[in-house]
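User: Please fill in residues for this 310-position structure.
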């Protein structure tokens, strides 16, 4: 097993764990002692990461209190992140600085300009001075004597005049996290300007559906793969793997015990493979002839009847 220093990023560590766990898992022919040793190593590494200053735990809430200075935003997770946990990189605001592009004005001085409607572009306005009992001219208070107004806001600060400085941290993804839950991060824990609230949203996945305590994987299997192949390739949380094709001639779903999402108590749920054997809508006549010959040959060899599970 590798030392933690051999990993240049957290993603590398997670990738290494997923690849190793596939080959070491006893259900896939791995050695039980090596599997337990690896899990013990990963637990120690995880504890180190949780206590490391760059990694921060968050509090799970049902609602936001919205007290004091706070920021609310939507935080997107993949199904894999919610199911397997781990750590997620986010950006947090730490301080605000004057925008260097517009010098704090919030305007794009190189952008479009309009004539000032108050002074009509003359830069000065005429007023009556009671003390002098006569007319006098003052610098236009709207355009500040420029004769024009800047129409475009600064693209860098979006007209605010200030830039919010951010830094990256890793947060621990709580096990059993659900869509719509609120993650709370106290500003004092991460030296931020604001208390941070993140509403959890889960991105759609092309294959997986995250249910209450299991993952549902829907797939279509061409009928010839079940007939001709010894193993069928499917996608699991740990990546692609092969399953004996004999399981696909039984009723759906196939259930992989303990291969689903991590639940709030730390144990894993199940992984359901909801498969459907598909037949093409259009089959060429030549192919139908070959299939008919194959069926005829099959029936001749099994005159006593065909057992679908044999």
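Assistant: Residues filled in for all 310 positions:
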């Amino acid at each position: 097993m590798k030392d933690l220093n051999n990993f240049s990023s957290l993603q590398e560590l997670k990738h290494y764990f997923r690849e190793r766990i596939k080959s070491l898992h006893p259900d896939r022919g791995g050695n039980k002692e090596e599997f337990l040793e690896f899990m013990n190593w990963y637990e120690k590494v995880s504890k180190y990461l949780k206590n490391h200053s760059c990694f921060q735990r968050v509090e799970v809430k049902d609602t936001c209190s919205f007290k004091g200075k706070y920021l609310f935003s939507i935080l997107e997770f993949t199904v894999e992140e919610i199911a397997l946990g781990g750590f997620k990189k986010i950006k947090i605001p730490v301080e605000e600085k004057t925008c260097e592009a517009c010098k704090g004005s919030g305007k794009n001085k190189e952008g479009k300009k309009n004539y000032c409607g108050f002074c009509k572009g003359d830069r000065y306005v005429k007023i009556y001075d009671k003390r002098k009992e006569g007319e006098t001219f003052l610098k236009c208070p709207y355009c500040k004597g420029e004769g024009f107004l800047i129409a475009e806001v600064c693209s860098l600060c979006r007209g605010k005049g200030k830039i919010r400085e951010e830094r990256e941290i890793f947060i621990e993804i709580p096990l059993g996290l659900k869509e719509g839950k609120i993650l709370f991060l106290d500003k004092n824990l991460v030296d931020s300007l604001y208390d941070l609230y993140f509403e959890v949203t889960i991105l759609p996945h092309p294959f997986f559906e995250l249910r209450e305590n299991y993952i549902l994987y829907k797939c279509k299997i061409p009928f010839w793969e079940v007939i001709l192949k010894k193993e069928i390739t499917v996608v699991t949380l740990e990546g692609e793997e092969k399953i004996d094709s004999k399981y696909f001639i039984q009723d759906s779903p196939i259930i992989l015990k303990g291969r689903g999402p991590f639940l709030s108590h730390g144990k894993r749920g199940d992984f359901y493979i909801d498969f459907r054997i598909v037949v093409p809508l259009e089959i060429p006549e030549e192919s139908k002839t070959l299939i008919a010959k194959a069926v005829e040959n099959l029936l001749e060899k099994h005159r006593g009847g065909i057992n679908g599970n044999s």
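For context: Helices lie at 10-24, 32-51, 79-84, 187-190, 223-228, 285-301.
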